[in-house]
């Protein structure tokens, strides 16, 4: 939304295809011909001269090269090593491939050139002959490396054997890489996080200022809290800022006096707890910020560094490419949560089109992104923001388009789709979209397969969507409640993520079609927000209140901050139907859900003193079944007990085995995960009281 407002304010004349003719016709003839579709674009093997490229990796300086996972070997793939370095990238602000980046020209030198640096981390086999030639690039989440955790149940670092988890990705011989993109994650800490050093936009060399909005939900009972500002305050004069508080989204806001807060410095503000407010109160701090970073360069960083790694060519300084001996034949882009939203923007904005021709990534996997995108490509962007029902409810990054299909939105009237650009340029990746149940409550995931009026929407042929049924955003190691009313949801997701990645690689590399989508749609698994319509059991006798809210969405004004929703133009958000236990009927039901010991779902509620009964962040619920019929009767629990379901431990194990085998046959579990599921079932303590 903000990107469109910025670009349209001084937009050049474009032809019917959306091509900037004034800029294009000033470019060398090979670029003009390529952009107009009169000839084939340059290929990575025959690139244009350096001076005419959209971007160039001037240097990739590898600082460290160390054994990964303590030197552990991974079957036939052998051992791995970690390379950590910094890439210096030169971007031409005048090149058509970079025109979508907001404020890029305002950070360029007299020749239209912008330079930035970004961290690069590569996890690769030490012996090239053992490599699979598959490159998986994970977009870091707030600088963190999550892929090994999701693909191998490992850790976020790459040092010890324990970090490798099951070692699945490494046993395949895949190379993993992380490229910094987020301008507010510091550069040079690649051992821990993967960051980027982006330039600041100026007004012809003068300081650029503008209004910025920070929202704080402290969720503690301290009398004072410190809020970090994304951008430095232009002035420490309290008259130039405004602090307000509200109990929950939609409630009236109260403006607080300047005595209720103070600047500690240009990057921090101390806020006193407002009288009468609980720990879940929403504080909104509006101020004049300065020095906006060109956050949209993160898309160029992902595009250009990944294309460089794939090419195997030396950098512009003549240094060897660390992937020269691997030369991947398949490249996959993976994003989890925040980075999954960034991935959807990356494709939507056209950055999967390599400026030298072809696509950058052959395949893509956005995980737990829902229908949202990101607040990145805007002046004074805040990449860490993401809308939930209680928090960050009204920031840019969650407006139309929502689905990969291109269509006219019945609510806003706009025509678009996540795949609209790449379909025109034939650069769409094969894409697998995976969500948990929580994304339907907190991220309006129903809009992936429905239009804004609740009608079914077909996905493009190159897209598969899978619901990780009845799971929360990220599974809990052990159920805990925290500020929520109930323990959160430990139902696992990793077996499906591993299987989906295996199927995605086969799709991109071998052309083998993956399983059909298993994702609810209108008329096929999605129903209105109503407990009875959903089929969710009445658990009120157990003290379980069904939610009275979900993260709704309306068309928002382009001006801001603050941004305001138009209640007359509201989207219809639907939820998955459930069985009598409260589990999603449609989607991929892993053994935890297909053979359950509790009710699992993606919603939870905040407890008293913390904005009671609003949705509780990224937490789901786990409500255990009674042990037997007697306990169920005492509890007035409508769900069959464990003993009534399974009778014996052997029967329980057999049910788990059958469920896992069915998923393996359908392509949703790997052989090794079937075995793990059965082994877990054999030692499951919650059925230990059953006779053998």
What report would you give on this structure?
The protein has 692 residues and is of the alpha+beta class. Among the domains are: 2-200 and 294-386, Rossmann fold; 209-290. Helices cover 19% and strands 21% of the residues. The strands form seven sheets. Strands 1, 2, 3, 4, 5, 6, 14, 15, 18 and 19 form a ten-stranded mixed sheet that branches. It has a four-stranded antiparallel sheet with strand order 7-13-9-10, with no helix packed on it. Strands 8-12-11 form a three-stranded antiparallel sheet, with no helix packed on it. Helix 15 packs antiparallel against helix 16. It is globular, with a radius of gyration of 26 Å. Mean pLDDT is 93; it is low at 1-44.
Please summarize what this structure is.
The protein has 16 helices and 26 strands. α15 (649-666) packs antiparallel against α16 (671-682).
Given this structure, which CATH class of the domain at 2-200 and 294-386 is correct? Alpha Beta
Distance between the termini: 60 Å
Helix percent reads: 10-25%
**Shape by Cα distribution:** globular
Task: Please supply descriptive tags for the structure shown above.
692 residues, alpha+beta, Rossmann fold, ten-stranded mixed beta sheet, four-stranded antiparallel beta sheet, disordered N terminus
Task: Write the topology of this structure.
Elements: H1 2-9, H2 21-24, H3 29-35, E1 55-67, E2 80-92, E3 113-125, E4 134-139, H4 147-152, H5 168-171, E5 175-179, E6 196-197, E7 209-216, E8 224-228, E9 242-246, E10 254-255, E11 261-265, E12 268-272, E13 282-290, H6 297-311, E14 330-336, H7 338-348, E15 363-367, E16 407-408, E17 415-416, H8 420-425, E18 430-436, H9 438-442, E19 463-468, H10 494-510, E20 521-522, E21 525-527, H11 531-534, E22 554-556, E23 565-570, E24 575-576, H12 591-594, E25 598-601, E26 621-624, H13 629-635, H14 642-646, H15 649-666, H16 671-682
Parallel strand pairs: 4-5, 4-14, 14-15, 15-18, 18-19, 20-21
Antiparallel strand pairs: 1-2, 2-3, 3-5, 3-6, 7-13, 8-12, 9-10, 9-13, 11-12, 16-17, 21-24, 22-23, 25-26
